[in-house]
């Protein structure tokens, strides 16, 4: 196997630490060609679709990638911003804010963001960090709840990069933070702020991204972690069991997915006389297609059409100050034992001199 060329290295140089904050990904533009490329990578991941590859390849390339890109492009176009995809904009902001928060606490940690599918890619950013002299990397997925379809796929990309790398940095991984008190508190704060500005609806609907029910039966903890997040958030807000509902969205294909489904639940609620709902998506740390188009647009239209009177979407954590502080706390907890201080110039020079002297003796 041919390994990648290693960046230049000076003996005695200080070890640097970095965080790679990883989100799902986004197409480069809201166009059919860009969506075709993005969906081919995303849906071609065996972590995402667990169907035998030869069969799935025919379905994906013979049907889905011929029909879906144009439809998805129109959806993306409805939420696209001047800065590009909302998910990319918010993910980039979170990474920058996390770096600033750590710096303000006196820690010298580089923070970059990467996308599992699309750009900037995980291998690209890991190569960039190595070129900067980084020798310790904390991988932080943007997914609070662990799932083989998301979190594990991020780790796969890191492992595959490692297969082509001669000198692999020391690595640590954050698997989950679905029940971390600081994450829950940040979620609760966004809800309280929304209620203070717009009032509290009759029901709070917590909509999580769905996955095939089969994954739960095979041992994926995602469903259980979503349920725990929902319960803890409700407790933090002082809600009784009849004041909130937990649902799953984004069903794809004909297989049974985790239930109850979000849009049918909202329709049923409206038909049963519920007039006002608030909807939050706790499993997404950044607003994206699934929250801004699927929930704020499509789900809202379905609820109002079924007889509801008021649908209020509560934005994701995005760049909320309390969330950034929580993310800093979570990251620091996983970096315990690593020296996060800024390298001292004199000590660094002395270290290099000792290393050179040692090399001369050898």
UniProtKB/TrEMBL annotation:
The keyword Cell wall biogenesis/degradation does not apply. GO terms for molecular function: ferrochelatase activity; metal ion binding. Fe(2+) binds at residues 209, 290. The keyword Iron applies. InterPro entries: Ferrochelatase, Ferrochelatase_AS, Ferrochelatase_C, Ferrochelatase_N. It is found in: Cytoplasm. Its main location: cytoplasm. One of its GO terms (biological process) is heme biosynthetic process. GO terms for cellular component: cytoplasm. Keywords: Cytoplasm, Heme biosynthesis, Iron, Lyase, Metal-binding, Porphyrin biosynthesis. Its EC number is 4.98.1.1. It comes from the Bacteria. Belongs to the ferrochelatase family. Catalyzes the ferrous insertion into protoporphyrin IX. This is Ferrochelatase. It comes from Limnohabitans planktonicus II-D5. The lineage of its organism: Bacteria, Pseudomonadati, Pseudomonadota, Betaproteobacteria, Burkholderiales. The gene is hemH.
């Amino acid at each position: 196997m041919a390994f990648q060329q290693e960046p230049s290295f000076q003996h005695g140089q200080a070890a640097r630490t970095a965080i790679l904050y990883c989100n799902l990904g986004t197409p480069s533009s809201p166009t059919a060609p860009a969506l075709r490329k993005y969906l081919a990578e995303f849906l071609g991941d065996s972590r995402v679709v667990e169907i035998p590859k030869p069969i799935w390849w025919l379905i994906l390339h013979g049907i889905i990638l011929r029909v879906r890109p144009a439809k998805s492009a129109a959806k993306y176009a409805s939420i696209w911003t001047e800065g590009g995809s909302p998910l990319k904009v918010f993910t980039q902001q979170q990474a920058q804010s996390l770096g600033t928060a750590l710096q303000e606490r006196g820690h010298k940690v580089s923070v970059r963001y990467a996308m599992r599918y699309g750009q900037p890619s995980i291998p690209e950013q890991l190569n960039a960090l190595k070129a900067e002299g980084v020798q310790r990397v904390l991988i932080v997925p943007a997914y609070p709840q662990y799932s083989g379809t998301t979190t594990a796929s991020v780790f796969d990309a890191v492992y595959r990069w490692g297969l082509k790398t001669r000198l692999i940095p020391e690595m640590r991984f954050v698997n989950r933070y679905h029940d971390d008190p600081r994450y829950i508190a940040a979620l609760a704060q966004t809800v309280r702020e929304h209620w203070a500005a717009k009032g509290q609806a009759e029901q709070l609907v917590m909509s999580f991204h769905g996955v095939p029910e089969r994954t739960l039966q095979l041992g994926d903890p995602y469903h259980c972690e979503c349920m725990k997040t929902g319960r803890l958030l409700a407790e933090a807000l002082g809600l009784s069991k009849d004041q909130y509902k937990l649902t799953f969205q984004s069903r794809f294909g004909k297989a049974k997915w985790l239930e109850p489904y979000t849009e049918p639940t909202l329709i049923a609620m409206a038909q049963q006389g519920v007039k006002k709902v608030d909807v939050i998506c706790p499993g997404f740390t950044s607003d994206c297609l699934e929250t801004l188009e699927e929930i704020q647009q499509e789900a809202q239209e379905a609820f109002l059409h079924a007889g509801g009177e008021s649908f209020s979407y509560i934005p994701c954590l995005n760049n909320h100050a309390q969330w950034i502080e929580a993310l800093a706390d979570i990251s620091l907890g996983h970096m315990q034992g690593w020296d996060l201080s800024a390298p001292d110039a004199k000590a660094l020079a002395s270290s290099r001199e000792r290393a050179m002297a040692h090399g001369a003796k050898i």
